[in-house]
């Protein structure tokens, strides 16, 4: 175990939640879980059965997935602002890209509102307080209870971390008696993150490396809720997922000793969760696919599984990035966002050492054929980013409506190894940092690099994160951490110093709570 250096649960009505469980199991369709209040759960419901506990827990994952997917918010927050993508024709997306986050657009109004996150938190609080009543059902054993409560606490902690990265200080609510966010003032982000960290430290040892996996000590339920390990995969929060969140909490606060400790634990124990570095081919074909059997490499992800009826047209980056290409005909002629050709060439330089399989010249080709793993239609004015492309249905015919099944992946082993390289670089452990960096470079076809007078290790690490994690929602947060460390970008320094790295708070939130004021930068 690591020591740090520093009524119904989720009920929108019983029938709705049970339907949610059956339809999405690892999450919930964002439309089905659309809600008008942060008080999502029915506190007068019963808590007395195995089914009640299962419904409540699955609803937590569903609400969290809905918060991330609604209006493609996960990518609005993490990928578009000051990122590599440009908008083809949507002025609301251009406003986000340009950092004009107080512009008047329905999309921006929606993604600046933290209501959906507090639905997750209120539901988590209710679940933690009430699920013990389900032990009245003999099928709901003590091992189920302990594991489910640990997950709910981890989900709540992750939700708070995610909100702090977006808004800074947020109201901290840890039980149902405290009320909802529209009645409380904001809590300092350090206090919120401290709470989240302590929760994760406490529950991580209570979480398994795999659900329904081999458990000689018999600490966890066998065949958890009737599903085997290949069906659960890494969808619920595992022990390594909890430590991954802890690593990011530490890195966000600049506590890189802790980040190094947590990432070391993940790297050393990756095989226990069936985690491995994936080939470039598997990265672009299976890693983000919710329906692939034995796809354990989503260290923490939120799935849209076709086999469970979770196919949706919204809440996926493909909705923004995909369009017709020579290799993949679609009825949509142009994407909504794209990476310009000059940016692609700069991000994936040919001088990077070896041949970058994500975007580079295929060495086996006679006519200098460019790899299409990340991009297609590179010769056109608007290239198409297709790294994540999990499309359901026949989309090649004009007028067909494309729907998608890709998971929202928060982190995977490659991301953790690069975060570890970042931490080790800051701590001056140069050789170890290069080792982690080169491990990721190697699976992408690039040669190893080593210290040189003209080479800045931290810059190399973040450049590799930019390439490897493109389209996954990391670009903005990486820029914040990098510029906090380097302090060489005057414009970004001003954003950091004046709180401009955070988003404005939706006017709807301000109207409902006189104790909350707008973030100073956006006043």
Report on this model:
With 523 residues, the protein is mainly alpha-helical. It has a domain at 46-206 and 473-506: Serine Threonine Protein Phosphatase 5, Tetratricopeptide repeat (Alpha Horseshoe). It has 20 helices and 8 strands. The strands form 4 sheets. A two-stranded antiparallel ribbon has the order 1-3. Strand 4 and strand 5 form a beta hairpin. Helix 7 (142-167) runs parallel beside helix 10 (239-252) and helix 17 (457-468) packs antiparallel against helix 18 (475-486). The protein is globular and about 70 Å long. The relative contact order is 0.12. Residues 1-41 have low confidence and may be disordered.
Features:
single chain; 8 strands; 523 residues; two-stranded antiparallel ribbon; Serine Threonine Protein Phosphatase 5, Tetratricopeptide repeat
Which secondary structure elements does this structure contain, and how are they paired or packed?
Elements: H1 14-24, H2 50-69, H3 73-80, E1 86-87, H4 91-97, H5 106-111, H6 115-130, H7 142-167, H8 189-203, H9 229-232, H10 239-252, H11 256-269, H12 280-285, E2 300-302, H13 318-321, E3 337-338, H14 341-347, E4 375-376, E5 384-385, E6 391-392, E7 403-404, E8 408-411, H15 413-426, H16 430-443, H17 457-468, H18 475-486, H19 490-497, H20 507-512
Antiparallel strand pairs: 1-3, 2-8, 4-5, 6-7
Helix pairs in contact: 1-2, 2-6, 2-7, 6-7, 7-8, 7-10, 8-10, 10-11, 11-15, 15-16, 15-17, 16-17, 17-18
Shape category: globular
Task: Return residue spans where pLDDT drops below 50 for at least 5 consecutive residues.
Answer: 1-41
Relative strand content = under 5%
CATH 2nd-level architecture of the domain at 46-206 and 473-506: Alpha Horseshoe
Structural class determined from secondary elements: mainly alpha
Find the CATH topology of the domain at 46-206 and 473-506: Serine Threonine Protein Phosphatase 5, Tetratricopeptide repeat
Task: State the name of the first-level CATH class of the domain at 46-206 and 473-506.
Answer: Mainly Alpha
Distance between the termini: 45 Å
The helix fraction, in percent, is 40-55%
Total beta strands: 8
Number of helices: 20
Query: H/E element string?
Result: HHHEHHHHHHHHHEHEHEEEEEHHHHHH
Strands of the widest sheet, in order across it, are 1-3
């Amino acid at each position: 175990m690591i020591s740090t250096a520093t009524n119904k649960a989720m009920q929108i009505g019983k029938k709705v939640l049970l339907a949610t469980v059956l339809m999405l199991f690892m999450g919930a369709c964002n439309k089905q879980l659309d809600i008008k209040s942060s008080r999502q759960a029915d506190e007068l419901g019963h808590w007395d059965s195995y089914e009640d506990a299962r419904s409540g827990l699955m609803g937590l994952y569903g609400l969290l997935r809905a918060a991330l997917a609604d209006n493609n918010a996960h990518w609005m927050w993490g990928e578009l602002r000051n990122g590599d993508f440009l908008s083809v024709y949507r002025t609301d997306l251009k406003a986000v890209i340009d950092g004009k986050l107080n512009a008047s657009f329905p999309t921006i109004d929606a993604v600046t509102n933290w209501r959906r996150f507090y639905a997750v938190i209120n539901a988590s609080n209710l679940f933690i307080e009430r699920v013990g009543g389900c032990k009245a059902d003999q099928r709901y054993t003590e091992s189920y209870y302990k594991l489910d409560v640990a997950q709910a606490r981890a989900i709540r902690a992750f939700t708070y971390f995610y909100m702090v990265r977006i808004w800074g200080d947020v109201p901290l609510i840890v039980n149902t008696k405290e009320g909802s966010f529209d009645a409380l003032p904001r809590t300092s982000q350090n206090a919120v993150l401290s709470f989240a960290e302590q929760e994760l430290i406490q529950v991580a040892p209570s979480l398994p490396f795999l659900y329904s996996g081999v458990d000689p000590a018999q600490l966890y339920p066998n065949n958890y809720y009737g599903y085997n390990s290949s069906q659960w995969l890494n969808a619920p929060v595992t022990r390594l997922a909890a430590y991954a969140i802890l690593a990011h909490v530490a890195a966000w606060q600049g506590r890189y000793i802790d980040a190094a400790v947590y990432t070391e634990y993940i790297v050393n124990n990756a095989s226990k969760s069936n985690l491995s570095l994936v080939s470039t081919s598997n990265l672009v074909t299976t890693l983000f696919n919710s329906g692939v059997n034995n796809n354990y490499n989503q260290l923490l992800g939120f799935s849209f599984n076709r086999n469970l009826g979770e196919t949706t047209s919204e809440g996926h980056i493909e909705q923004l990035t995909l369009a017709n290409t020579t290799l993949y005909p679609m009825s949509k002629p142009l994407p909504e966002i794209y990476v310009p050709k000059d940016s692609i060439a700069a991000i994936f330089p040919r001088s990077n050492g070896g041949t970058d399989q994500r975007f580079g010249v295929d060495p086996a080709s006679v006519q200098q054929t460019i790899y299409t793993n990340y991009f297609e239609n590179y010769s056109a004015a608007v290239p198409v980013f297709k790294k994540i492309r999990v499309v359901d249905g026949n989309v090649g015919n004009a007028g067909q409506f494309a729907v998608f099944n890709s998971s929202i992946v928060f982190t995977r082993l490659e991301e953790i190894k690069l975060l570890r390289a970042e931490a080790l670089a800051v701590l001056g452990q140069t050789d170890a940092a290069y080792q982690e960096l080169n491990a990721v470079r190697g699976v992408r076809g690039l040669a190893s690099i080593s210290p040189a007078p003209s080479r800045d290790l931290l810059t190399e690490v973040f450049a590799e994160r930019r390439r490897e994690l493109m389209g996954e929602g990391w670009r903005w947060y990486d820029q914040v951490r990098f510029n906090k460390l380097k302090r060489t970008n005057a414009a970004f320094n001003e954003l950091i110093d004046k709180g401009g790295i955070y988003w404005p708070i939706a006017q709807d939130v301000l109207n409902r709570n006189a104790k909350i004021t707008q973030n100073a930068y956006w006043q």
